[in-house]
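Table S2 (text version). Query chain:
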Amino acid sequence: MTKKRMTDQQEFEIMKLVLDKFLWLGFIVMGWGMYTSIKDMSILPGLWYMVSGAVLLILFAILIVKEYQIFR
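Corresponding structure-token output:
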């Protein structure tokens, strides 16, 4: 039994579906940080959430560029 290989286009479509969920996760973490900052009337408690959300988004951007070599 031979395994079927995906085309580059199919692989890219699946990557977009998965990546969308991770991007939402990063923005949700950043939004929670903003909510926490507003609720507590202080920047510091929510700042860590916002920074971690930004780091998450940057990591996924690096992953995309490295994996799919968007910029050639």
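Notes on Table S2: The helical segments are 8-40, 43-68. The chain has a mean pLDDT of 84.
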